[in-house]
Design a protein that fits this description.
The structure is a single chain. The protein has 141 residues and is mainly α. It has one domain. It is built from five helices and no strands.
Length: 141
């Protein structure tokens, strides 16, 4: 799940709109891949993971529609998580990233001049918040 940590770091380091949109897109892609990879690991978490994966795909699509999204760059695919990673670990890591993503995109939307970019940031922020909410039940204390 290093890809989720990397996405958080890139998002935190971003300073302008294209710099935020690029790691946000990647973060949604990474969350989607991790959720799909682990959705069968625990049948109790399956519904939350499937719904969160759908929200990640929707968030990615919102970001893809932003006018200021820079052209895609090639990057490494997410690898398998370390041995012993549990469903709760996955849920927790995705929830932390999605919460930070929702916060950053909400703040960005408030400061963006272009209506199209603002709408895309708001839509993606809502999807990120939904992921956090969905995984709260799959994330035991």
């Amino acid at each position: 799940m290093d890809c989720l940590t990397s996405a958080r770091q890139r998002l935190a380091a971003a300073t302008d709109l294209p710099g935020i949109l690029d790691p946000a897109y990647d973060a949604f892609e990474d969350m989607l891949a991790v959720l799909r990879r682990h959705q069968q690991d625990d049948h109790g978490a399956f519904p939350a993971f499937v719904l969160a994966a759908a929200a990640a795909a929707n968030g990615r699509d919102w970001i893809a529609g932003a006018d200021s999204l820079p052209p895609a760059t090639a990057r490494d695919q997410a690898g398998d998580p370390p041995e012993g990673t549990t469903v709760a670990d996955v849920a927790r890591a995705v929830a932390v990233l999605s919460s930070e993503l929702a916060s950053r995109l909400t703040a960005t939307a408030a400061s963006v001049a272009g209506a199209g970019d603002r709408l895309c940031c708001e839509g993606a922020a809502q999807e990120a918040a939904a992921i956090t909410d969905l995984l709260a039940g799959a994330n035991p204390p």
